[in-house]
Amino acid sequence: MHMRKFCQSVLKSDPQETVAHGVWKQRWVAVCAVPLLAFAAHAAEPVLAKGSVKGAGEVQVTAADVAADVQRIPPEVRPQVLTQARTINQLVTNLYTRRALAQRAQAEGLGQNPEVVAALALARDKVLSDALLVQVDRSNTPSDMQAVAMARTIYKAQAAEYAEPEQVQVRHILILVKDPSEDAAAKAKAQDLLTKVRAGGDFAALAKQNSGDPGSAEKGGDLGFFAKGRMVPEFDTAAWALQKPGDTSEVIKTQFGYHVLQLVGRKPAGQKPFEEVQEALVAKVRQAEQQKGRNELAKTLEETVKLDEAAIKATVDKLVAPAPAAPAKK
Question: What does the DSSP 8-state code read for residue 294?
Answer without folding.
Answer: H
